[in-house]
Every structure is written in structure tokens, then in C-alpha cells.
Design goal:
Layout (H helix, E strand, L loop, with lengths): L1 H18 L5 H29 L12 H7 L5 H8 L14 H4 L1 H6 L5 H37 L3 H34 L4 H6 L5
Helix pairs in contact: 1-2, 7-8
């Protein structure tokens, strides 16, 4: 559930970044609904964390600067996003959830929750594989669109439709690149190890 929440946070951050400041009433209602759902998931996850992490864990002790860290994981211009999101720093998409990678390995040791670390690492590894697989698919789709739809579009209406398809695929590429970047960063916090470090390299 924790990884799904962080993926939902990234998706919502990108959506907020995409629509910018000039939003319609429908867009504002949609964002508000997504935030309500996300906040409910975060609240439920945080309550369950106190059970697994024990009495030594304090849900109010969030590591510093992790909300900015989430923004930096976006495969986008973080400065532009900060312009849009200055007033939203307490929004659920920027909330740090209590995963071992967020509360630090040494804190897990103090809470006697070291057994959660390899479990989280395994989940992150699966998410990294999924993100890389999805990136390959969407990059292939983008290449095919350029070689077929875009190249063959002669009329202006067809060109507009073709580039709209390309932009849709590009948004999917950006999403999965952001998810991979976030996943890799969390794995590094859990001591990735040389073998995984060579396997999960930074995106170019």
C-alpha cells in the first residue's frame, strides 16, 4: 500500500504541475477529490505503521526536507512546479509516509523493525522493474508514432491529432521516469548494494 501511495503522490504532483494556476472549476473539483482519497489512504497507512514500527516510532517525526525531495524526483522542471505549488506544501501529495526508507535504517533499528527493510527493498525492486518496463513500452510507442502517424500526416488537422498522440505518450514517459527516479532514491536509502546499484542506474 505504501508504494502505491507514493506512486499516487507522484501522479497527482504531475497533474497539478500540468494544469498550472489557471484551472477550471471541474479541474479544481477533480484535484480536491483526488487529494481527499489520497489523504484517506495516507491516514490509514500511518495508523498501521504504528503497529508495525512499535512504540518507538513517532508519526510526527518526519525527516527534514523530504517534501522537497518528492518534488525533485519529478521528471520535470522542479522550479516551475514550486511556482505552482508554494501554497500547497501541506497537501497530501507532499506528505512523507512512514516507510523504513523515509524514517531511516537507524530509526528502524531503534524501533526493532529491521525485518521490514528487506521487505520494502523487494517491493521497490518490483516497482523499479515495472517502471522500466513501462518506459520501454511507451518509448517504443513514441518512436512508432513518429515513424507512422506524424510522418504521414500531411493535413493540418492530421498533424494536430498526431502531435496530440505524441504528447499523451510523452506524459506517460514522464510519469514512469519520475516513478523510477523516486524508486531508485528510496532503494539507495535502504543500502542498495553493489549488484542492485549496477542494475538500477540513473536515467540518462
Amino acid at each position: 500500500m505504501g508504494l502505491a501511495i507514493e506512486e499516487a503522490q507522484i501522479t497527482l504532483l504531475i497533474e497539478v504541475r500540468r494544469i498550472g494556476r489557471q484551472t477550471t472549476k471541474t479541474q479544481r473539483l477533480d484535484i480536491a477529490h483526488q487529494r481527499d482519497c489520497l489523504q484517506g489512504q495516507i491516514n490509514a497507512f500511518t495508523r498501521s505503521a504504528t503497529v508495525h514500527l512499535g512504540e518507538g516510532f513517532n508519526t510526527n517525526d518526519n525527516p527534514k526536507d523530504l517534501d522537497i525531495d518528492i518534488i525533485n524526483d519529478l521528471n520535470d522542471d522542479s522550479e516551475d512546479f514550486m511556482d505552482v505549488s508554494d501554497a500547497l506544501m501541506t497537501s497530501p501529495e507532499l506528505t512523507v509516509i512512514p516507510l523504513p526508507s523515509n524514517i531511516r535504517v537507524d530509526q528502524c533499528t531503534c524501533c526493532m523493525a529491521e525485518d521490514l527493510i528487506p521487505l520494502e527493498m523487494s517491493l521497490w525492486e518490483g516497482q523499479a522493474n515495472d517502471a522500466l518496463h513501462n518506459l520501454q513500452i511507451h518509448l517504443c510507442n513514441k518512436a512508432i508514432l513518429f515513424r507512422t502517424t506524424v510522418r504521414r500526416a500531411k493535413l493540418q488537422a492530421l498533424k494536430t491529432r498526431a502531435w496530440s498522440q505524441v504528447m499523451s505518450v510523452e506524459q506517460a514517459v514522464s510519469l514512469h521516469a519520475s516513478i523510477y527516479n523516486k524508486t531508485r532514491k528510496q532503494m539507495l536509502k535502504l543500502n542498495l548494494g553493489l549488484v542492485r546499484l549496477q542494475k538500477y542506474q540513473p536515467l540518462l
